[in-house]
Design brief:
Elements lengths: L17 E3 L2 E5 L2 H12 L4 H15 L9 E8 L4 E6 L43 H12 L4 H4 L1 H9 L1 E2 L2 H9 L1 H5 L2 H7 L11 E2 L2 H13 L2 H4 L2 H12 L6 H6 L3 E3 L2 E5 L2 E5 L6 H12 L4 H4 L4 H21 L10 H4 L2 H8 L26 E7 L4 E7 L9 E2 L4 E2 L30 E5 L2 E7 L6 H13 L5 H6 L3 E2 L5 E3 L5 H9 L4 E3 L8 E6 L4 E6 L6 E5 L15
Parallel strand pairs: 17-18
Antiparallel strand pairs: 1-20, 2-10, 2-21, 3-4, 3-11, 4-7, 5-6, 8-9, 9-14, 10-11, 12-13, 14-15, 15-19, 16-17, 19-20
Helix pairs in contact: 1-2, 2-3, 2-5, 5-9, 13-15, 13-17, 13-18, 15-20
């Protein structure tokens, strides 16, 4: 990918934005966006569009998301002006234990690995899912059309089939050996024992029947019914930990969002058990003390400051972020501007350095593969949601007869006992998901998010900075070259210029070129002055923004009817 400078813009984007007046759906697959648009056309709102889209993505983007997954929903209700955060993240089964895995290393980069990849592939890597319960709750409470209606596009795609994109075909090919280990997964994704080619039709009849059961009976079909019984029996037969009791005990949580400000904008994101919102606000608070705009986009000076702020946030994340039901998480202090000022003083503008966690208690405050989608409607309702089955194709396990890929969210836990994110029965693992809504003058300005595991919140952060500090359009912001570090190597995408890489090395950064930092980002931006919504999706996935304009015929008694 080469970035060409054009008059009045930092570079030429690979994809183009969508512009519409009555609604916008931005997802990482065209059929996901089409499902959401169908709901808007039926008179649904942003939540109907979001839930229909995520169910559709569970069919056509199966490597990233499924009803046996986990995530967070950040919803802005225009009528009340209130935010609702739904935590439908995964939890450890009751039979889980802090030392259930044999660890490989106590140091990075192998710190999270375990013997025989037990926390990554197979039945012992599966956490108790929250996706289906969260999506169903969101539709029931905030949608208009009902669960049975919003699931219908997904059922059609699963029953009639969809064309495999090059992106999906490539990911299947790269994971063919793991998928082949589980017959029900191989049956769908390795037809005839081979990965599908781009354009080949993939049909998921078992999953269609599971979705039909969901449409008919709701989430209880998994948490208290026959689908859950099938999964529990499959687990028991293959060394897995999840039982029927785990399903029955699962609960979603409504959280107070994390809020901060940055140069006159309000940032509203998700709270722990996701670390993403807290980290974004901490980093923005640190950056607010620098003239980021004058440092310039993609310069060695600008990237250096950004990287150092990321390293500080990751040091705090490792020490303090965990399930608030199990550990005390000092969110108010970590997002305090005074704390950020103290940490900012640790940054040397000329030299990279290592950071330990700080002491937020001194400051006053209040007591790798995923999908993201963003929707907005003409009334100003906004949904920003990130959902996952964790690694591509999750655990790689499909429970026979359900067509349902199982997550591998146990891989997100720290496999070493004694830390904030260590395993405990019933505990939620720490996520980096960051579905974020940016407000300006009391109105939604922008909403966005991305997949990408621990690279999520630094990527979302960079897009926010690209818009606010560097004056980019949303399309430019989501496609701009990204960087990432958590304290070890500084990963940079190929779009970062050679001279910038050398400048960073001169400052002491261990620079590594990586094809992509995080995944397909998408979002929406409100252009209130022109009465339109702008949608964007980046080149790193099959993302498509789809807008809804036009409307009903003008009434004949409207005074404006006569020209």
């Amino acid at each position: 990918m080469s970035w060409k400078k054009t008059a009045g813009s930092p570079f030429e984007t690979y994809k183009k934005e969508a512009v519409a007046s009555n609604g916008m759906v931005a997802t990482n697959h065209p059929l996901g966006s089409a499902a959401g648009l169908e709901m808007l056309a039926m008179g649904g709102n942003a939540m109907d569009a979001a839930v229909a889209s995520v169910f559709a993505l569970s069919v056509v983007e199966p490597m990233m998301v499924g009803i046996f997954g986990a995530g967070f929903i950040n919803y802005y209700d225009a009528a009340s002006g209130e935010f609702v955060n739904i935590d439908n993240y995964s939890v450890a089964p009751a039979a889980a234990a802090p030392d259930m895995y044999e660890t490989v290393s106590d140091t990075w980069p192998d710190y999270m690995e375990t013997a025989d990849r037990e926390n990554l592939v197979g039945y012992k890597s599966v956490g108790v899912p929250g996706a289906l319960m969260g999506w169903s709750y969101a539709e029931e409470k905030f949608g208009r059309l009902g669960l049975d209606t919003v699931v219908q596009p997904a059922i059609r795609y699963a029953e009639r089939g969809f064309a495999a994109s090059r992106y999906l075909a490539d990911i299947i090919r790269m994971n063919r050996e793991d998928l082949a280990m589980f017959p029900a997964s191989a049956e769908v994704f390795l037809p005839g024992g081979r990965p599908p080619s781009a354009g080949q039709t993939i049909v998921r009849p078992d999953y269609a029947r599971t979705l039909e059961a969901v449409a008919s009976d709701g989430p209880d079909v998994l948490y208290k019914g026959s689908i859950g019984e099938m999964v529990a029996a499959d687990m028991a037969a293959n060394g897995g930990l999840i039982s029927e009791a785990d399903f029955a005990d699962y609960r979603i949580h409504l959280r107070e969002p994390v809020r901060g400000t940055y140069r006159g904008y309000e940032i509203v994101s998700v709270a722990p058990t996701s670390s993403g919102g807290t980290a974004i606000i901490e980093i923005l608070n640190i950056l607010e003390g620098f003239d980021v705009a004058s440092l310039g986009f993609g310069t060695a000076k600008g990237v250096h400051v950004l990287a150092e702020a990321m390293k500080i946030a990751f040091a705090d994340r490792f020490e303090y972020l965990g399930d608030p039901a199990f550990v005390e998480v000092p969110v108010g202090a970590l997002t305090d501007k005074g704390y950020a000022a103290a940490r900012r003083d640790e940054i040397d503008p000329s030299q990279a350095r290592e950071y330990s966690y700080g002491n937020p208690s001194l400051y006053v405050g209040e007591s790798a593969d995923t999908t993201h989608l963003t929707t907005a409607d003409a009334e100003g309702n906004v949904v920003s949601t990130t959902q996952t089955i964790h690694a591509v194709f999750g655990s790689k396990v499909t429970t026979p007869g359900t067509g349902m890929l199982l997550n591998n969210t146990m891989n997100i836990f720290d496999p070493h006992p004694g830390n904030a994110n260590s395993i405990a029965p019933g505990k939620r693992m720490v996520s980096s998901m960051s579905p974020t809504i940016v407000m300006k003058d009391g109105k939604p300005f922008m909403a966005l998010g991305t997949p990408g595991a621990t690279r999520i919140f630094p990527s979302v952060l960079q897009a926010i900075v690209n818009v606010i500090d560097h004056g980019m359009t949303l399309q430019q912001a989501v496609e701009a070259p990204r960087v990432w570090t958590q304290g070890q190597a500084l990963e940079v995408e190929p779009g970062v210029a050679d001279g910038v890489r050398e400048g960073l090395r001169a400052k002491g950064h261990d620079v590594e070129i990586t094809p992509r930092v995080a995944g397909g980002m998408n979002g929406v931006m409100f252009d209130h002055a022109n009465g339109v919504i702008r949608g964007a999706a980046c080149y790193r996935a099959d993302g498509v923004p789809a807008g809804f304009s036009g409307g009903a015929a003008r009434p004949s008694d409207d005074p404006l009817y006569r020209f």
